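Each letter names a residue; structure tokens follow underneath. Both lines appear below:
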Amino acid sequence: MVNMLFSLYNFHESWAKDIVSKYINDTDKVAIITFSFGDEISNDREWQNAYSKNNGKYYKDIVMPFINYGIKEENIKFLNYFKDTKENAKANIRNSNIIFFTGGLPDKMMSRLMEFDLIDDIENFTGVIIGSSAGAMVQIAEYHITPDDDYNIFSYNVGLKMIKKFDIEVHYEGTEVQNKYIKKVLEEKKDKIYAITNSGGVIVDNKITLLGDIKTFSIQQ
């Protein structure tokens, strides 16, 4: 398994492309897991308005990186929380080379993955797992949430049992709030945190590769 962690859907840009292209083939099949939405999406019609090819407001941004790497649009499949069954969700993952987790709310993502009984399928996946924002956070075995527009309080949360040696701070802008909680996590939980800006990323493939604009915080600092 290869894990890629980003803040935005822009990992086809120049700061990332040379390295990311080593992991993505134009024949790959991609499973897009859109389980991180909030209360603004409560039925299939609203899901279609967000993610469908015809009129989904997020569709183009999500598929653009993969198309940029040469993957055909017909090989990019979106999991629909309101229409897909556990069985076809599992089949979609089994038949894919890449899993992509969308941004949004990481705790919602995890609860829906559990609801669909997909945790084992994903943790045992042997391909490439990519996530942006919330989709990056859930790849950390125990991730933290820094207070922002979506969350009023700080919290530690259980993610997928993939990355245990470090934590991340997405959308890093060096704010007082972000730095405060990075310091808290270093004191309480982790020896290292990678602060990922909107043009940065981390690839975990036996070793750790840092891409673009990223800052490392460690307990030794």
Remarks:
- Helices lie at 14-20, 44-51, 59-68, 86-94, 106-115, 119-123, 134-137, 176-188.
- The domain at 2-218 is CATH 3.40.50.880 (Rossmann fold).
- Strands lie at 2-6, 30-33, 76-79, 98-101, 128-132, 142-145, 155-158, 167-169, 192-205, 207-218.
- The mean pLDDT is 97.
